Protein backbone atom coordinates (compact mmCIF):
# COMPACT_ATOMS: atom_id res chain seq x y z
CA UNK A 1 0.00 0.00 0.00
CA UNK A 2 2.87 2.35 0.81
CA UNK A 3 4.46 1.64 -2.56
CA UNK A 4 1.20 2.41 -4.35
CA UNK A 5 0.91 5.69 -2.46
CA UNK A 6 4.43 6.63 -3.46
CA UNK A 7 3.76 5.82 -7.11
CA UNK A 8 0.59 7.88 -6.95
CA UNK A 9 2.60 10.84 -5.70
CA UNK A 10 5.04 10.32 -8.55
CA UNK A 11 2.13 10.39 -10.98
CA UNK A 12 0.90 13.65 -9.47
CA UNK A 13 4.40 15.08 -9.70
CA UNK A 14 4.62 14.11 -13.36
CA UNK A 15 1.33 15.88 -13.99
CA UNK A 16 2.62 19.03 -12.34
CA UNK A 17 5.76 18.96 -14.48
CA UNK A 18 3.69 18.57 -17.63
CA UNK A 19 1.58 21.53 -16.54
CA UNK A 20 4.71 23.58 -16.03
CA UNK A 21 5.96 22.54 -19.46
CA UNK A 22 2.67 23.62 -20.97
CA UNK A 23 3.01 27.05 -19.40
CA UNK A 24 6.64 27.35 -20.39
CA UNK A 25 6.03 26.42 -24.03
CA UNK A 26 4.07 29.62 -24.40
CA UNK A 27 7.46 31.38 -24.70
CA UNK A 28 8.10 29.68 -28.07
CA UNK A 29 5.43 31.59 -29.99
CA UNK A 30 5.93 34.85 -31.87
CA UNK A 31 5.85 38.33 -30.38
CA UNK A 32 2.06 38.51 -30.24
CA UNK A 33 1.84 35.07 -28.75
CA UNK A 34 4.68 35.89 -26.38
CA UNK A 35 2.83 38.91 -25.14
CA UNK A 36 -0.27 36.78 -24.59
CA UNK A 37 1.84 34.21 -22.73
CA UNK A 38 3.34 36.96 -20.64
CA UNK A 39 -0.10 38.16 -19.73
CA UNK A 40 -1.25 34.61 -19.01
CA UNK A 41 1.77 33.84 -16.88
CA UNK A 42 1.15 36.48 -14.27
CA UNK A 43 3.02 36.77 -11.00
CA UNK A 44 0.59 34.36 -9.36
CA UNK A 45 1.08 31.86 -12.19
CA UNK A 46 4.85 32.02 -11.85
CA UNK A 47 4.62 31.55 -8.10
CA UNK A 48 2.24 28.62 -8.58
CA UNK A 49 4.58 26.89 -11.02
CA UNK A 50 7.49 27.60 -8.72
CA UNK A 51 5.61 26.12 -5.77
CA UNK A 52 4.67 23.04 -7.75
CA UNK A 53 8.23 22.45 -8.78
CA UNK A 54 9.45 22.92 -5.22
CA UNK A 55 6.88 20.34 -4.12
CA UNK A 56 8.17 17.97 -6.78
CA UNK A 57 11.66 18.42 -5.42
CA UNK A 58 10.48 17.81 -1.86
CA UNK A 59 8.65 14.60 -2.81
CA UNK A 60 11.64 13.35 -4.78
CA UNK A 61 14.00 14.11 -1.93
CA UNK A 62 11.73 12.42 0.62
CA UNK A 63 11.12 9.21 -1.26
CA UNK A 64 14.33 8.70 -3.22
CA UNK A 65 17.03 10.53 -1.32
CA UNK A 66 17.95 12.82 -4.20
CA UNK A 67 21.45 14.24 -4.22
CA UNK A 68 22.23 17.91 -3.95
CA UNK A 69 22.93 18.14 -7.70
CA UNK A 70 19.25 17.49 -8.40
CA UNK A 71 18.27 20.16 -5.90
CA UNK A 72 20.63 22.58 -7.65
CA UNK A 73 18.72 21.99 -10.88
CA UNK A 74 15.50 22.92 -9.13
CA UNK A 75 17.21 26.06 -7.86
CA UNK A 76 18.29 27.01 -11.37
CA UNK A 77 14.77 26.46 -12.61
CA UNK A 78 13.37 28.60 -9.80
CA UNK A 79 15.68 31.42 -10.78
CA UNK A 80 14.79 31.06 -14.43
CA UNK A 81 11.06 31.16 -13.74
CA UNK A 82 11.50 34.47 -11.92
CA UNK A 83 12.79 36.07 -15.15
CA UNK A 84 10.26 38.31 -16.79
CA UNK A 85 7.87 36.16 -18.80
CA UNK A 86 8.33 38.45 -21.82
CA UNK A 87 11.96 37.45 -22.19
CA UNK A 88 12.25 34.82 -24.90
CA UNK A 89 15.74 33.95 -23.67
CA UNK A 90 14.30 32.21 -20.61
CA UNK A 91 12.19 29.70 -22.50
CA UNK A 92 14.88 27.30 -23.79
CA UNK A 93 16.51 27.10 -20.38
CA UNK A 94 13.20 26.40 -18.65
CA UNK A 95 12.28 23.71 -21.16
CA UNK A 96 15.71 22.08 -20.89
CA UNK A 97 15.68 22.06 -17.13
CA UNK A 98 12.15 20.73 -17.06
CA UNK A 99 13.22 17.87 -19.34
CA UNK A 100 16.07 17.11 -16.96
CA UNK A 101 13.62 16.98 -14.08
CA UNK A 102 11.28 14.74 -16.04
CA UNK A 103 14.16 12.40 -16.85
CA UNK A 104 15.12 12.34 -13.19
CA UNK A 105 11.50 11.75 -12.31
CA UNK A 106 11.40 8.77 -14.66
CA UNK A 107 14.45 7.32 -12.93
CA UNK A 108 12.80 7.99 -9.59
CA UNK A 109 9.69 6.09 -10.64
CA UNK A 110 11.83 3.11 -11.64
CA UNK A 111 13.46 3.16 -8.23
CA UNK A 112 10.09 3.42 -6.49
CA UNK A 113 8.70 0.52 -8.50
CA UNK A 114 11.71 -1.51 -7.43
CA UNK A 115 11.06 -0.52 -3.81
CA UNK A 116 7.43 -1.54 -4.21
CA UNK A 117 8.47 -4.97 -5.48
CA UNK A 118 10.83 -5.34 -2.54
CA UNK A 119 8.04 -4.29 -0.15
CA UNK A 120 5.70 -6.84 -1.70
CA UNK A 121 8.37 -9.54 -1.32
CA UNK A 122 8.95 -8.67 2.32
CA UNK A 123 5.19 -8.61 2.97
CA UNK A 124 4.87 -12.13 1.57
CA UNK A 125 7.81 -13.24 3.72
CA UNK A 126 6.13 -11.82 6.82
CA UNK A 127 2.87 -13.54 5.89
CA UNK A 128 4.79 -16.80 5.48
CA UNK A 129 6.42 -16.38 8.89
CA UNK A 130 3.03 -15.72 10.48
CA UNK A 131 1.57 -18.80 8.80
CA UNK A 132 4.42 -20.95 10.08
CA UNK A 133 3.91 -19.57 13.58
CA UNK A 134 0.25 -20.65 13.49
CA UNK A 135 0.66 -24.05 11.81
CA UNK A 136 1.62 -27.46 13.15
CA UNK A 137 4.51 -28.73 11.05
CA UNK A 138 3.62 -32.43 11.25
CA UNK A 139 -0.10 -32.36 10.45
CA UNK A 140 -0.47 -29.09 8.58
CA UNK A 141 -3.34 -28.12 10.86
CA UNK A 142 -3.48 -24.91 12.86
CA UNK A 143 -1.63 -25.09 16.17
CA UNK A 144 -2.54 -24.31 19.78
CA UNK A 145 -1.65 -20.64 19.41
CA UNK A 146 -4.06 -20.23 16.50
CA UNK A 147 -6.75 -22.12 18.43
CA UNK A 148 -6.43 -19.91 21.52
CA UNK A 149 -6.71 -16.79 19.39
CA UNK A 150 -9.79 -18.03 17.52
CA UNK A 151 -11.44 -19.23 20.73
CA UNK A 152 -10.98 -15.79 22.29
CA UNK A 153 -12.46 -14.14 19.18
CA UNK A 154 -15.52 -16.39 19.12
CA UNK A 155 -16.07 -16.09 22.85
CA UNK A 156 -15.81 -12.30 22.80
CA UNK A 157 -18.30 -12.14 19.93
CA UNK A 158 -20.65 -14.46 21.85
CA UNK A 159 -20.40 -12.32 24.98
CA UNK A 160 -21.31 -9.28 22.88
CA UNK A 161 -24.51 -10.93 21.67
CA UNK A 162 -23.07 -12.81 18.74
CA UNK A 163 -23.48 -16.37 17.59
CA UNK A 164 -22.76 -19.30 19.89
CA UNK A 165 -20.30 -22.06 19.01
CA UNK A 166 -19.26 -25.57 19.99
CA UNK A 167 -15.86 -26.87 21.00
CA UNK A 168 -14.83 -30.48 20.36
CA UNK A 169 -11.72 -32.06 21.90
CA UNK A 170 -10.52 -35.23 20.16
CA UNK A 171 -8.07 -37.75 21.59
CA UNK A 172 -6.60 -40.74 19.73
CA UNK A 173 -7.32 -43.90 21.71
CA UNK A 174 -4.31 -45.97 22.81
CA UNK A 175 -1.92 -43.74 20.91
CA UNK A 176 0.98 -44.76 23.12
CA UNK A 177 0.59 -48.32 21.85
CA UNK A 178 1.16 -47.17 18.26
CA UNK A 179 4.47 -45.61 19.27
CA UNK A 180 5.57 -48.45 21.54
CA UNK A 181 4.62 -51.24 19.14
CA UNK A 182 5.36 -49.74 15.72
CA UNK A 183 7.69 -46.84 16.44
CA UNK A 184 7.35 -43.08 16.42
CA UNK A 185 7.34 -42.89 12.64
CA UNK A 186 4.09 -44.87 12.57
CA UNK A 187 2.82 -42.71 15.40
CA UNK A 188 3.44 -39.66 13.23
CA UNK A 189 1.57 -41.28 10.36
CA UNK A 190 -1.39 -41.94 12.65
CA UNK A 191 -1.45 -38.27 13.62
CA UNK A 192 -1.35 -37.27 9.97
CA UNK A 193 -4.14 -39.71 9.09
CA UNK A 194 -6.37 -38.37 11.86
CA UNK A 195 -5.61 -34.80 10.83
CA UNK A 196 -6.50 -35.57 7.20
CA UNK A 197 -9.86 -37.11 8.09
CA UNK A 198 -10.73 -34.28 10.48
CA UNK A 199 -9.86 -31.70 7.82
CA UNK A 200 -11.98 -33.41 5.17
CA UNK A 201 -14.97 -34.33 7.35
CA UNK A 202 -15.07 -30.95 9.11
CA UNK A 203 -14.45 -28.68 6.16
CA UNK A 204 -17.14 -26.28 7.43
CA UNK A 205 -15.55 -25.90 10.87
CA UNK A 206 -14.28 -22.53 12.00
CA UNK A 207 -10.90 -24.05 12.79
CA UNK A 208 -9.37 -27.53 13.13
CA UNK A 209 -6.19 -27.64 15.22
CA UNK A 210 -3.66 -29.95 16.73
CA UNK A 211 -4.18 -29.12 20.38
CA UNK A 212 -1.09 -30.93 21.58
CA UNK A 213 0.35 -34.47 21.48
CA UNK A 214 -2.37 -36.84 20.21
CA UNK A 215 -5.17 -34.36 20.98
CA UNK A 216 -7.03 -32.16 18.51
CA UNK A 217 -9.47 -29.27 18.97
CA UNK A 218 -12.23 -28.12 16.66
CA UNK A 219 -14.39 -24.99 16.84
CA UNK A 220 -17.75 -25.11 15.05
CA UNK A 221 -20.74 -22.80 14.78
CA UNK A 222 -23.13 -25.77 15.03
CA UNK A 223 -25.36 -26.03 18.12
CA UNK A 224 -23.93 -28.39 20.74
CA UNK A 225 -26.11 -31.46 20.06
CA UNK A 226 -25.74 -31.12 16.28
CA UNK A 227 -21.98 -30.74 16.70
CA UNK A 228 -21.95 -33.85 18.89
CA UNK A 229 -23.83 -35.83 16.24
CA UNK A 230 -21.39 -34.64 13.60
CA UNK A 231 -18.43 -35.70 15.70
CA UNK A 232 -20.01 -39.11 16.22
CA UNK A 233 -20.16 -39.49 12.43
CA UNK A 234 -16.51 -38.49 12.25
CA UNK A 235 -15.69 -41.08 14.90
CA UNK A 236 -17.33 -43.78 12.79
CA UNK A 237 -15.55 -42.58 9.65
CA UNK A 238 -12.23 -42.68 11.46
CA UNK A 239 -12.74 -46.33 12.47
CA UNK A 240 -13.71 -47.26 8.90
CA UNK A 241 -10.41 -45.97 7.47
CA UNK A 242 -7.71 -48.37 8.73
CA UNK A 243 -4.12 -47.44 8.07
CA UNK A 244 -1.79 -49.95 6.43
CA UNK A 245 1.57 -50.41 8.14
CA UNK A 246 3.61 -53.03 6.38
CA UNK A 247 1.50 -56.20 6.33
CA UNK A 248 -0.73 -54.92 9.14
CA UNK A 249 -3.85 -52.82 9.07
CA UNK A 250 -4.23 -50.47 12.03
CA UNK A 251 -7.67 -49.28 13.08
CA UNK A 252 -7.70 -45.79 14.54
CA UNK A 253 -10.30 -44.96 17.19
CA UNK A 254 -10.97 -41.61 18.80
CA UNK A 255 -12.74 -40.31 21.88
CA UNK A 256 -14.48 -36.93 21.74
CA UNK A 257 -15.75 -34.44 24.29
CA UNK A 258 -17.78 -31.34 23.46
CA UNK A 259 -19.09 -28.22 25.16
CA UNK A 260 -20.45 -24.77 24.37
CA UNK A 261 -20.32 -21.39 26.14
CA UNK A 262 -22.88 -20.74 28.86
CA UNK A 263 -22.96 -17.88 31.38
CA UNK A 264 -19.18 -17.85 31.45
CA UNK A 265 -17.16 -14.73 32.05
CA UNK A 266 -14.07 -16.18 30.35
CA UNK A 267 -13.47 -18.88 27.75
CA UNK A 268 -11.56 -21.32 29.96
CA UNK A 269 -14.69 -23.03 31.43
CA UNK A 270 -15.72 -23.96 27.88
CA UNK A 271 -12.45 -25.85 27.46
CA UNK A 272 -12.75 -27.38 30.93
CA UNK A 273 -16.24 -28.77 30.27
CA UNK A 274 -15.16 -30.22 26.92
CA UNK A 275 -12.20 -31.81 28.66
CA UNK A 276 -14.52 -33.30 31.30
CA UNK A 277 -16.68 -34.77 28.54
CA UNK A 278 -13.59 -36.20 26.84
CA UNK A 279 -12.42 -37.73 30.11
CA UNK A 280 -15.83 -39.35 30.52
CA UNK A 281 -15.63 -40.80 26.99
CA UNK A 282 -12.23 -42.30 27.67
CA UNK A 283 -13.12 -43.46 31.18
CA UNK A 284 -16.23 -45.29 29.98
CA UNK A 285 -14.64 -47.33 27.22
CA UNK A 286 -13.16 -44.92 24.64
CA UNK A 287 -14.23 -44.75 20.98
CA UNK A 288 -17.29 -42.70 21.84
CA UNK A 289 -18.57 -39.14 22.03
CA UNK A 290 -19.85 -37.23 25.08
CA UNK A 291 -21.00 -33.65 25.35
CA UNK A 292 -21.28 -31.40 28.40
CA UNK A 293 -24.34 -29.14 28.49
CA UNK A 294 -23.20 -27.19 31.55
CA UNK A 295 -24.88 -29.57 33.98
CA UNK A 296 -23.73 -33.08 33.12
CA UNK A 297 -22.07 -35.17 30.42
CA UNK A 298 -24.22 -37.12 27.98
CA UNK A 299 -23.32 -39.98 25.65
CA UNK A 300 -24.11 -39.55 21.97
CA UNK A 301 -25.67 -42.70 20.51
CA UNK A 302 -26.37 -45.99 22.22
CA UNK A 303 -23.54 -47.56 24.25
CA UNK A 304 -23.61 -50.69 22.10
CA UNK A 305 -22.86 -48.55 19.03
CA UNK A 306 -19.85 -46.89 20.58
CA UNK A 307 -17.80 -49.99 21.27
CA UNK A 308 -14.04 -50.34 21.28
TrEMBL record:
One of the GO biological process terms: negative regulation of bacterial-type flagellum-dependent cell motility
Sequence ranges assigned to domain GGDEF in this UniProt record: 163-294
Reactions catalysed: 2 GTP = 3',3'-c-di-GMP + 2 diphosphate
Protein name from the UniProt record: diguanylate cyclase
Matches recorded under NCBIfam families: GGDEF
Record-level Gene Ontology MF annotations: diguanylate cyclase activity
Gene behind the chain: pleD_5
Domain of life of the source: Bacteria
Matching Gene3D superfamilies: 3.30.70.270
Enzyme kind, highest EC tier: transferase
Enzyme Commission (EC) number: 2.7.7.65
One Pfam short name: GGDEF
PROSITE patterns per the UniProt record, alphabetical: GGDEF
Transmembrane segments: 6-27
SMART domains on file: GGDEF
Coiled coil: 98-132
Gene Ontology CC, one term: plasma membrane
Keywords: Coiled coil, Membrane, Transmembrane, Transmembrane helix
Amino acid sequence: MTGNLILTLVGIASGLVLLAVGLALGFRFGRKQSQMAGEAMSKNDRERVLQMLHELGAWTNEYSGSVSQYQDRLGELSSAVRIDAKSNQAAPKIVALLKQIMDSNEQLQTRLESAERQLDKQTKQIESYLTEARTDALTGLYNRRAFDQKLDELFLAFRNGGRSFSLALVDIDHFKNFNDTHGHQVGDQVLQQVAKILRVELDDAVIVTRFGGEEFAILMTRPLKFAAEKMNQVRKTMASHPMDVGSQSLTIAISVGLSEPRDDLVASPVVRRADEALYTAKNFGRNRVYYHDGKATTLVGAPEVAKR
